[in-house]
Amino acid sequence: MEFTRIKNFIDGEWLEETDVKYVPLFNPSTGEQIGEVPLSSEKTSLAAVDSSHAAYDSWKWLPLNKRMAYLFDMRQAMINHKEDLAVSIAVDQAKHISEARGEVERVIQILETACNIPTLMQGEHLDGIANNINGRVVKQSLGVFGGVAPFNFPALVFGWFIPYAIGVGNTFIYKPSTQSPLFMQKMGDIFNEIGLPKGVVNIIHGNRSIPGTWYQNPKMTGVCLVGSTPTAKKMAEACGRGGKRSMLLGGAKNYLVAMEDVDWDVFIPNFLHSCYGSAGQRCLAGSVVAAVPKVYDELIERIVEASKGVTMGDAMDPDIYMGPVISAKAKANIEKYIEIGIEQGSTLVLDGRNPQLPEANKNGYFVGPTVFTDVTPCRTIAKEEIFGPVVSVMKISGLDDVLNIIREQEFGNGACIFTQNQFYAEKFIQEADAGMIGVNVGVCAPHPYLPFGGIKDSHLGTDKVQGKDGIDFFTQNKVATIRIAPPAGYEEKSIETSSNNSVRSCVAQ
């Protein structure tokens, strides 16, 4: 692959940073360096802020139908370049090409939903509050927002933030992960292709010093993040001190619960997709599998057999199931958790370390499916987010037992139950202490029309991403109280008109 020197996209121009440090960009499937990414300077970051701030006044007053035309054009351009966008994700993020295509397709769906902004951001009107007084709530844009993306979903997080933010009239500065910047390099070209006005979206690369220039900056309005909970908490504090609006999605520890009436034909493919899709590197990945005693032993037998059948290799290979994890550091961290699981007494029934790989991928960052049994809720591997293909199997006494376990953990992102019993399903929906619930699905990601986000330490803030929540976060409510009084002389004019004998009715006299 051609070596790529990543550039910033500011004021509609691709700008190469000079006199700053560059970090290497790798293809995780092979370990090959394929580019380098700038750790941009504070000066460049402030230039991006100035650009978005300058663009805001004209963009917010652009008629709504014209802003929607840009979103429609963006959607069509993504359709036209769908395969190039998917390949960019499969190369630097190493998400399997089939999943990368699915991620791009989901963003197109999000754009289609965002094109419904004229309906979603309509305000409210209340007549007759008092004599001649009406009330109105108007939803308006806020200003300049900044967004920080994780490595694992470079396209999806773009879709969560940018279409909604700019659709309602804000401008946006986006910082991709230094580990997966290629998708946004493609999107910058699309912005120019559709003629998006300069400064409406700026793209800047770097480390935490970039959002560090936003918190106290009077030209910035709010900050968005998808990342770890510790990072989200630090950003929440900084946004609070700076008076910035914030929407911060953090970590997760998600449960798949198998009841005694589990349908194995439904459970096993959902288990594989949930636990090993994206190599376990997503916020809704299945991490703990909890089973009642009646099916516990059979569940272990079935998931180990299925896990052994997961093929690994280059993310661009359509014949494999799972690609690598993002980096050598991530691989080492996952293997550290495997060691901790062994040390704390859980049983390692399937070890994903040192998997068999094609020769071309020997230097890639691979961890195979890993399964622990005899895991208890107090074990580290049952509590902390591993962000890899490591599954902890836990025996539960029943539904109330697992509901209590989920309730006591710090995270509250997703939880899924597999059952044919409507009572179990409804009780789980009502009482599972998580923001997103699945019934007989392994990845409980809401469709674009509905809000996405967890609770507890998985989500800091009030509004979630997508749907009407996305509109609410990126807008402010302005309330108008309107007294309507007749102009001077109105009553006399009415009397004069009524005394006029001229016929104006369409009814025959």
TrEMBL record:
Group of enzyme by EC: oxidoreductase
Keywords: NAD, Oxidoreductase
The organism's place on the tree of life at top rank: Bacteria
Keyword NAD tagged: yes
Tagged with keyword Lyase: no
Molecular-function GO terms, alphabetical: methylmalonate-semialdehyde dehydrogenase (acylating, NAD) activity
Name of the protein in its database record: methylmalonate-semialdehyde dehydrogenase (CoA acylating)
Organism encoding this protein: Desulfocicer vacuolatum DSM 3385
Organism classification: Bacteria, Pseudomonadati, Thermodesulfobacteriota, Desulfobacteria, Desulfobacterales
